[in-house]
UniProtKB/TrEMBL annotation:
Residues 404-426 are annotated as: Disordered. Pfam families: Amidohydro_3. It comes from Albidovulum sediminicola. Residues 39-399 form the Amidohydrolase domain. This is Amidohydrolase family protein.
Length: 426
């Protein structure tokens, strides 16, 4: 007797299987023809996936678009300035309410693991207090990792380093930084060395906003790879954005990518945001604003797509749908071969789970019973449609359901129902 069976679904690798759930764990992934369960979800013909994962977000700022005013230039720097104003007036209660509302969206979309950077610049650390409360309140359905993120730089403000340490002592999970925003290149390099030491000494993960700029001479990722190798951090370290790489000359990149691969660190491009923020100083031709995703994948580097922002000072759109992120990513990175599109789906599930070092993730016996049933036949179709999440299961409990995305038509001589899924081939 199972608590729940998801029956007849198609897994991302193309296999068809039933998934038997007992308590908060997957007990079986096989044909369960005669097994009984307290509840059965019929997923015949539908894609059953592990939950979506976002390894890069800013939950302290989410759903604050227009506060204190709209980002008129659309630039990264104006967004940082606006957030600098908002963080001084936003209360803990306001940040908690916005973050919980976003987590409601995420739950409905099957986004059940999120790594969020929390600004540690202000001495009051209200954002840290708020996000620790949110983490505790959503723990039964969303795995939330917090990054101590000195938005204005580790050294650029007098208490930047001190506040980062305070946040870690309060229970924040990951060491963050922003080397390209320090006052000098040398300060940026030293901030990478410093944060890597802190992560190694505390046994924590490391995730730096790194080279989020169009300047090809912003090369802090080289220092990051060296420090990750020096301290043996490996896959516990990540470089986020890495957009300067799109402007670097090919010879230098041919040296850089093997060093990143050798270190074992991960990379987190954020296609929705960087295609919007980068290249703002260009006339034509305009740069794409995305790091070299395909080239890093070819080197064996773990690359995961990040969402970064939803309705905040940097980005005026967003829906908590990681398939939107992957959809933009495959277009900007020109990953349109069927195998590459399938890889884009994997990047917002299994790949991002590796970036976050999640335990118990996946569709296998013994893993956490968290999964999503989608109104699509396979991963590529899911990217094309960004379909309804027919059922979202978090740690053994059904937490969300959405009707199929069919259209009711009233057209002479045509079917009464239209569905955008690909027709079966003869």
């Amino acid at each position: 007797m199972f608590d729940l069976i998801v029956k007849g679904g198609t897994l991302p690798d193309g296999r068809q299987a039933d998934i038997g759930i007992q308590g908060d764990r997957i007990a079986a992934v096989e044909r369960l023809e005669s097994a009984a369960a307290r509840e059965v979800i019929d997923a015949t013909g539908d894609l059953v996936s592990p939950p979506f994962v976002d390894p890069h977000f800013h939950m302290d700022a989410t759903l604050s678009y227009g506060l204190p005013r709209v980002n008129a230039s659309g630039t990264l720097l104006e967004g940082i300035a606006l957030w600098g104003e908002l963080r001084e007036t936003a209360t803990v209660e306001e940040m908690v309410a916005r973050a919980l509302a976003y987590c409601d969206w995420a739950a409905g979309m099957g986004l059940l693991a999120i790594r969020t950077h929390v600004d540690t610049t202000p001495d009051h650390l209200r954002g840290v207090t708020a996000m620790l409360e949110v983490k505790a309140r959503v723990r039964d359905y969303i795995d939330l990792q917090l990054v101590a993120f000195p938005q204005d730089g580790l050294y650029r403000t007098a208490t930047g380093r001190e506040n980062l340490i305070r946040a870690l002592d309060m229970g924040v999970d990951v060491v963050g930084g922003i080397p390209h925003f320090e006052r000098t290149m040398e300060d940026g390099r030293e901030s990478v060395r410093d944060t890597a030491r802190i992560a190694a000494e505390r046994g924590l993960m490391l995730d730096l906003h790194c080279d989020e700029t169009d300047d090809p001479m912003s090369r802090h990722v080289e220092t990051l790879a060296a420090e990750v190798t020096r301290h043996g951090l490996g896959a516990r370290a990540a470089g986020s954005h890495l957009t300067s790489m799109h402007s670097m000359d090919n010879y230098y990149v041919s040296k850089l990518l093997p060093l990143i691969a050798e270190s074992g660190m991960c990379a987190i491009p954020n296609p929705l945001i960087n295609i919007t923020l980068q290249g703002r100083h260009d006339t034509f031709p305009k740069r794409r604003g995305l790091t070299r995703v395909k080239e890093m994948l070819a080197q064996g580097i773990t690359v995961g797509w990040g969402q970064d922002c939803v309705l905040d000072p940097w980005y005026s759109l967003g829906t908590a749908d990681m398939l939107d992120v992957a959809f933009m990513g495959l277009h900007v990175a020109q990953m349109t071969h069927p195998a590459e599109m399938a890889r884009c789906f994997e990047m917002v599930t299994e790949g991002n789970a590796k970036v976050m070092n999640l335990e118990g993730y996946g569709l296998r016996p013994g893993a956490a019973a968290s999964l999503v049933v989608l109104d699509a036949g396979n991963p590529t179709e899911a990217l094309r449609l960004r379909p309804a999440r027919l059922a979202v299961i978090a740690k053994g409990k059904v937490i969300a359901r959405t009707p199929r995305g069919d259209h009711a038509l009233s057209l002479p001589g045509r079917p009464t129902i239209a569905n955008r899924r690909a027709p079966a081939r003869p």
